[in-house]
Amino acid sequence: GAVVSQHPSRVICKSGTSVKIECRSLDFQATTMFWYRQFPKKSLMLMATSNEGSKATYEQGVEKDKFLINHASLTLSTLTVTSAHPEDSSFYICSAGQGNEQFFGPGTRLTVL
Amino acid sequence: KQEVTQIPAALSVPEGENLVLNCSFTDSAIYNLQWFRQDPGKGLTSLLLIQSSQREQTSGRLNASLDKSSGRSTLYIAASQPGDSATYLCAVPSGGYQKVTFGTGTKLQVIP
Questions:
Q1: Tens digit of each residue's pLDDT (9 = 90 or more) over B90-109
Q2: Which residues of B touch A49 (CB under 8 A)?
Q3: How far apart are CA B57 and CA A26, in angstroms?
Q4: In this structure, which of A17, A109, B36, B81 has its CB flanked by the most CB atoms within 10 Å?
């Protein structure tokens, strides 16, 4: 099946700093990628749809200025958590579709001190 | 808005037992349904994908069924093993191309 990678897999940062997470489709092109967030002991919630060459579409309640998404190429989407705070600590996972199947990255665990 | 519920939320069984995990969804206009496994602190492992035209899919000891009309899917695990201990998530397409809504998850523990 298709492969989606994420980098970094784990990041610890100080409060107030910004963190960038990369999502790459390794062997296929994806005009659309998705970013999800998982709170401890909860299921995954869709944050936003990343559209190649255009603005991302955010789900209700997700701050677009807080979570900056850039989809500059057909194989790369980035999520930047700006001015991170401890409440942003979470597991972030991206996905890309090929055909009608979703392929998920391995996730990034963000811890904000 | 698609809502996906999984029952039970948690399940503990002795090794060797057969078990069934349930997933229900409110909008039956889906083109597929996926089952995933998530180990603690880890990402998602895709287990089975069922297309809307299919009624079931099998992979090893796993069998997933789909009943679109009733908005239900089940994941059957035969002869459970301690290594099957994980959280199981179902996911269905949700209101747009390729994005999905995840179920609430079932945390399974298989006791040796």
A1: 999 876 557 889 999 999 99
A2: 96, 99
A3: 27
A4: B36
